[in-house]
Each structure stands twice: as structure tokens, then as C-alpha cells.
Write a structure and sequence with these properties.
192 residues; 0% strand
Length: 192
């Protein structure tokens, strides 16, 4: 049972109802929960759109970062969605399992991914990042990409907190289809 129930369709604005009826993601419990914060939803939607198509962090690495955030914050609703996203993107099961088991230094990850995961862990868990981890991530990412990663981490920390505080019930797992189109737009296509 949802502690904070998603908005009812009839209580949505005309624009929100159009999104509800035109996109699968608009019908998700998370979208309907976020609709409660009507004035903030537009900005979050813009940030998510930018994250999907306009950042310089490669999509596969963005996804590894997202999985790490959701694991560290125990975001069950979003974790279920992003398991499908990872599968749709072709991220190997061994990498997903390593993240789920908190093995961020696993040999399945290359040096760049290990630096990304160490950075993500410190941003989530300690907020500040020590010099060793910052220098490691800076060896692989531009300053712009590092700031983009902080935004990605923050967005998913927000989604995990909103869905977990609300005790949001898993309604549909549609993350794979949703992100396939975003990744295709960013030039990442996984052949099955």
C-alpha cells in the first residue's frame, strides 16, 4: 500500500493528462507521485530530459552510476526499473550483480568504471569526495562530466527517496523501453 498515493488522473492538469495518456512513463506510479509537487515537476522533467540526451557522460556509464546510486540508497522501485534498463542497454549481468553485491572494485569493471563507482559511493555516502577518488575520476572524466555525474547522482537520490518515503508500489517495469528510445537518440543502440 502506498503511504503517499499517486495523484488521481482526474486531478492532473490538462498537460499532465496528455502526458499520462501519451507515454507509458507518464502512467507510472512514480510519475503520478511526483505530480503532487506540481511546480517542481517541470524542472525535474527538464533535468531528466537533459540527462537522457544532452550530457557528455556516456549512456552506459550513466547507467552504471544510476545502478550504484539505487543500490546504495536501497531504492527498490527504481532498482526494478533500472534492471530492465541495464538489460536493454546490454550491460552484462556480472556487472549488475557486482553492484548489487556492493563489489564496486570487481574485475568485471574496467579502471574507468571503478573510478566512477568509487566516486558515486562517496558522493552518496559521505557527500564530500576525498582527493584520491576525485583524482581517479578526474583522470577519466572532464570537469563538465564530473558535474553532470553529480547531477545524475542527485536526481536518482531524489527519486529513491521520494519512492521509498512514499512506500511506492511497483506497478509496471517499463524502464527498458523508456530508455531504449533515449539511448537511441544519444547514439547508443544495443543489438540483441
Amino acid at each position: 500500500m502506498n503511504r503517499i498515493p499517486p495523484m488521481r488522473v482526474e486531478d492532473l492538469t490538462e498537460e499532465e493528462q496528455e502526458r499520462y495518456h501519451s507515454t507509458p512513463s507518464g502512467r507510472s506510479n512514480l510519475a503520478m507521485l511526483l505530480a503532487h509537487a506540481r511546480s517542481m515537476r517541470i524542472g525535474i522533467g527538464s533535468a531528466v530530459s537533459a540527462m537522457m540526451s544532452d550530457i557528455e557522460v556516456p549512456p552506459l556509464e550513466r547507467q552504471i552510476c544510476v545502478l550504484a546510486v539505487l543500490h546504495l540508497d536501497r531504492g527498490a522501485y527504481e532498482w526494478a526499473q533500472h534492471l530492465e534498463v541495464s538489460k536493454a542497454m546490454g550491460i552484462p549481468d556480472e556487472k549488475v550483480a557486482a553492484i548489487a553485491d556492493d563489489r564496486f572494485g570487481d574485475p568485471a569493471f574496467n579502471h574507468r568504471e571503478k573510478a566512477l563507482l568509487a566516486f558515486t559511493r562517496q558522493v552518496v555516502k559521505t557527500v564530500r569526495v576525498d582527493d584520491f577518488v576525485f583524482d581517479a575520476v578526474k583522470a577519466f572524466y572532464s570537469l563538465r562530466q564530473i558535474v553532470e555525474l553529480i547531477h545524475v547522482i542527485g536526481l536518482y537520490m531524489l527519486f529513491a527517496r521520494v519512492s521509498e518515503v512514499a512506500e511506492l508500489e511497483l506497478d509496471m517495469v517499463m524502464g527498458g523501453d523508456f530508455w531504449k528510445s533515449a539511448n537511441a537518440a544519444a547514439g547508443v543502440v544495443h543489438e540483441e
